[in-house]
Write a structure and sequence with these properties.
Length: about 160
């Protein structure tokens, strides 16, 4: 068995105050503007950003041959404004009931529950972000989706900070 990283790690410095970057992760209207890979829309974002609070997200990609819709649910485990956010994520139906990853076409062995950890810190007037998604391999499509989403986040943060 190969020794693969079973997590995505993205570190980025944003030219914006920490409070702005925090809001991008915790304000549903702002999250909706950047989340997901290129070509995906996010028509539903429900977030109760408190420890134990629930979240439900819908991503949608419309193509001529079909529309792909993916639902995700999770729970906030840590909320330390504006420096640390930890939440779980699972594939679900539109009512928030967890669906097995294999039933959604994911490879065998993909975890039913993954965890996202966001750490923010001030860095000479900018904000340093470290994002880890435990349970999503570094060489997966999910990792590529995160890279695209974080690039969209950077563009949005810069437009808001200007």
């Amino acid at each position: 068995m190969k020794n693969e990283n079973k997590w995505v790690l993205i570190e980025r410095v944003f030219d914006a105050p920490i409070e702005t970057v925090w809001k991008m992760w915790t304000d549903p209207a702002l999250f909706q503007k950047w989340y997901g890979p290129n070509g995906m829309k996010v028509p539903v974002v429900e977030m109760d950003v408190v420890v134990g609070g629930r979240r439900k997200i819908c991503m949608e990609m419309v193509r001529p041959e079909r529309t792909m819709i993916m639902w995700f649910t999770g729970q906030y485990k840590e909320v330390e404004e504006p420096t640390r956010l930890v939440y779980t994520e699972s594939m679900s139906d539109q009512d928030g009931n967890i669906i097995s990853p294999e039933a959604m076409g994911m490879p065998k062995g993909h975890p039913e529950v993954t965890e996202i950890i966001i750490e923010l810190s001030k860095d000479n007037g900018k904000t340093r972000m470290k994002m880890v998604h435990i349970g999503v391999p570094a060489d997966s499509g999910g990792a590529g989706g995160w890279t695209q989403a974080i690039n969209k986040l950077a563009a949005l943060v810069e437009s808001v900070a200007d």
